[in-house]
Amino acid sequence: MNWTLALPEIVLAVAGTVILLIGVMPKANTFFACTLAVIGALLLAAVLVLGQGEGIALGGLYVADSFSSFMKVLALLGAALGLLLSLDFNARAGLDRFEFPVLALFATLGMMVMISANDLMAVYMGLELLSLPLYAIAAFDRDNGRSSEAGLKYFVLGALASGLLLYGISLVYGFAGTTNFDRLADALSGTQNVPTGAIVGLVFVVAGLAFKISAVPFHMWTPDVYEGAPTPVTAFFAAAPKVAAIALLARVLFGPFGDIASQWQQVILLSSIGSMVLGAFAAIGQRNIKRLMAYSSIGHVGYALMGLAVATDAGLRGLIIYMLIYMLMNIGAFAVLVGMRRNGRPVERIEDLAGLGATDLPRALWMAVFMFSMAGIPPLAGFFGKLYVFLAAVQAGFWTLAVIGVLTSVVASYYYLRVVKVMFFDPVPAEGALDGSPAGLAAVTAGTGLFNLVFCLYPAPLLLTAGAAAAALLG
Amino acid sequence: MNAAGFPLLSLLTFLPLAGAALILSFRGEAALVAQNARWTALWTSLLVFGLSLILWFRFDHGTAEFQFVERAEWFREFGVGYHMGVDGISVLFILLAAVLTPLCILASWEAIKARVREYMIAFLVLETMMVGMFSALDFIVFYVFFEGVLIPMFLIIGVWGGPRRVYAAFKFFLYTLLGSVLMLLAILWLWYSAGTTDIPELFRFDVPRAAQTWLFIAFLASFAVKVPMWPVHTWLPDAHVEAPTAGSVILAGVLLKMGAYGFFRFSLPLLPQASADFAPLIFVLSVVAVVYTSLVALAQEDMKKLIAYSSVAHMGIVTIGIFTFNAQGMAGALFTMLAHGVVSGALFLCVGVLYDRVHSRDIARYGGVAGIMPSYALVFMLFTMASIGLPGTANFVGEFLVIVGIWKVNPWVAFGAALGMILGAAYMLWLYRRVIFGRVTRDDLRALLDLRPREYAVFTPLVLLTLWMGIYPESFLAFFRASVAALIERHEAALGMARLAAGT
Fold first, then answer.
1. Which residues on A lie below 8 Å from B169 (Cβ)?
2. pLDDT tens digits, residue range B51-70?
3. Residue B77 has pLDDT above 80, yes or no
4. Are A62 and A118 in contact (CB under 8 A)?
5. CA neighbor of A53 nearest in space, from A3, A5, A12, A2
6. Closest chain A residue to B129, measured at CA
């Protein structure tokens, strides 16, 4: 048994249990200490992931390769940064309970299981381990009606998606006779006629996963949950779980179902186009900035799926780079949103940012960097993310997809520009300027902003690592 | 290696960025920060101008090869590298950008009162993007600068612009972006077909005939918006009217040249057959632009809008010249681009002088300024005459060459272009008469002061340049000659090959 391959997960699980035990110690508020401990555990896991060997472990349920390492480090980084954003906010909102970081830790553990899953059962286990804590932290502000509603909505729809996924898994199992990825690949590659039942099962599996990445047509929960959940929770939702779910989707589609790419390509293609179009048009009318970010994330998932839809190694590489850049743009933008307060109270309308360029130039400039980057304007990182998926689409001859992609990116740039416009062109509103940003948030903003700004100078190492990760997945 | 002995083009490109970073670091009292920001921006841009003079003196007129070349690895695995260099087509536009930026900063000295620091940063970033765009020899690098221009310009129009600035800024940004993303797809196609984005290497790559048409359309979408050509010019009047004076100067002086430069640099050498096929379409669009926008200019009540429409007309002359594929027409187009950069920039500055004093751009608001501001009236007259194309001024040389060039290709198009010049005389002279001559109808105009020393400093270089370009154009034409000849030779060789392949 080469269980040592799963060392990062094991360490994380043990750390979570220990922190839980410390957290329940009575009297003192352990939120702050627990959060720091969890961030420490996540970073430790990231270091372990980097030093991890490669291979298949735990009776074929678990796989470690350079794809899983890359995506795990990304997810762990996203989770750690997301927790960093919660420190100040939760303390002020009275949400400073130690369960919060612990739940986030177990969700992250679920992500790692998902990324390393080599069996449909492991997929389901990881997904549920991710989802259950997320339902809880979406409703973490339990005295707030909107937060409870967000949690409940997410739970009901999430349960439905899990049901779809399970049903799909059972169909695939029924028709292919196994749940293990390697044996599934063997079972599906040899036959000329893939059993229809397996394809129906595949579609259900894709539907279940599309829910997690909020791709059209399984996106409906996103705006409500993003708006209702406390802002740091939204930041957490928008970053790490997306990375993990996209990684899982890529692994499932390229692994066991890699030989029947022509069967799932159209599904992903339509979902990609739908997400890009919806993300571009539905966000235009939004007034709440968290809803805007929700639609923006739907759009971004559409671009990422474009890399998947072309089903080539260039596309996969583009997808990996896109997720990396997407995550860092999002964390940065949310670091600004989490810090939006006026007279000590959190605000979340777009107009609340008015005049930020005059009152707090650095923060407004970073936010502008994130917005231009999301719109895909060079020389910012977001442009290069789009560049690689478009390149893959053009290379594979998917012209319609590429043209729709660039056109929706122009439409989407309208609402990103609107945020910039509100910050720089509009006067400071009568209610007064926004409060200053806490140092922690400012540091996260500056760090991720700097990444977006200087990614263009020396992208080679990241591109090469992403290329190696893509190659590993394609075998 | 490089004629300067050090990475001159990179220095020219990134020096303004360093200046911007310096300004960003200023702290302290607002008035002091503003003053320091102004001086830092001015000195940075003057330093860039000083360095850019090396290009003027050390540039070798005798060759069409790229000079002052610099290379660095960027992401080599993908065939993309950082590659800079200039040839006869691009070198003078770098100088133009380097000349206009300090003048713009000087012209904004007192006109911009709010958020001076941010304004100066935006202008320096803009200069980086402009110089980088004209020196880039890699398609991805080019695209980064080409689109990067949008960010500072969007902010300049939107923050320091007029009453409808938000609308104008969005229209400018979205219009231009829409064109550019289609070009991006064309670049991606070339990238993966040729395996490189290095422009000199791409010149050696034969684009298949069928692909040329699509690529040309994609490039046209981007460059036509930038030029701008009729009927996608409608963003320009809005952007010009709402932008602050210096923003208009850069917009008319340099940014409009980016589209025409794109035709020269990419469409013509990479897609020779498609360029020849599409030339009639370009001629039609250009003649419509020249005649129609001149007529529209006649009807304008707003001085800036009038000059904006005249810009569209002048750029129509440029696009006609580009697609003549002969030495006169192309050199004329390049010369007109330069001349228009200087003259229309100067005209916007002239409007800015009045606007700073009266805060109105309505033509009807003025009259009889000649008696009140005689020196100003003289300067304005010189640039009005230059815009009309009076012999002895810059525009005459360029427009004359274009008309000579197009006459050889199609006299009817030459007729249209000449008609545009006549209409140009009509609207400019009428503008001049209404603003400068006549009775002083408003008493508050009597208190206006004539040009101040700072304004003399802004106008003197432009006056000298206009006259120099008009009286001794050879100094400038010498830069174009070898590159234009090489471009034509290349074009004819490509067409000859195609004819051979098709005919026999």
1. 421, 425
2. 999 888 888 888 888 888 88
3. no
4. yes
5. A5
6. A379
Per-residue model confidence as pLDDT tens digits over B225-275 = 988 888 888 899 889 888 898 899 998 889 989 999 999 988 888 888 888
What pLDDT, on the 0 to 100 scale, is given for residue B372?
84
3-state secondary structure of B473: coil
* Residue of B148, B333, B123 whose CA lies nearest to B248: B123
Cβ–Cβ contact B174 with A under 8 A: yes
Cis bond upstream, residue A461 (ω within 30): no
Contact assignment for B74 to A372 by CB distance below 8 Å:
no
Which pair of structure tokens corresponds to residue A213?
């990445």
Instruction: Tell me if B204 sits within 8 A of B263, measured CB to CB.
Output: no
- Residue A47 makes CB contacts below 8 A (sequence gap 6+) with none
Q: Tens digits of per-residue pLDDT, B286-299?
A: 999 999 999 999 88
Q: Which of A272, A327, A365 is nearest to A466 (CA)?
A: A327
The interface residues of chain B toward chain A in range 284-343, judged by CB-CB distance below 8 A, are none
- Whether the CB of B115 is below 8 Å from some CB of chain A: the reply is yes
ipTM, two decimals, is 0.89
DSSP states of A259-281 as a string? Answer: GGHHHHHHHHHHHHHHHHHHHHH
Structure tokens at A216: 């059209």
What's the pTM value of the predicted model, to 2 decimals? 0.92
Q: Is A449 exposed, middle or buried (0-12, 13-18, 19+ CB in 10 A)?
A: buried
Q: Do B147 and A378 touch (CB under 8 A)?
A: yes
How many CA atoms within 13 Å lie on the side-chain side of B386?
32
Residue B3: predicted pLDDT:
62
d(CA A369, CA B316): 36
- The first and second tokens of residue A181, run together, are 């990825």
Residues of A in contact with B145 (CB under 8 A): 378
Residues from chain A that touch B140, judged by Cβ atoms under 8 A, are 387
CB A75 within 8 A of CB A45: no
B174 with A413: Cβ contact below 8 A: yes
Instruction: Collect all residues of chain B within an 8 Å Cβ-Cβ radius of residue A414.
Output: 170, 174
**Burial class of residue B80, CB neighbours in 10 A (0-12, 13-18, 19+):** buried
Q: Which residues in chain B are closer than 8 Å to A403, comparing Cβ atoms?
A: 182, 185
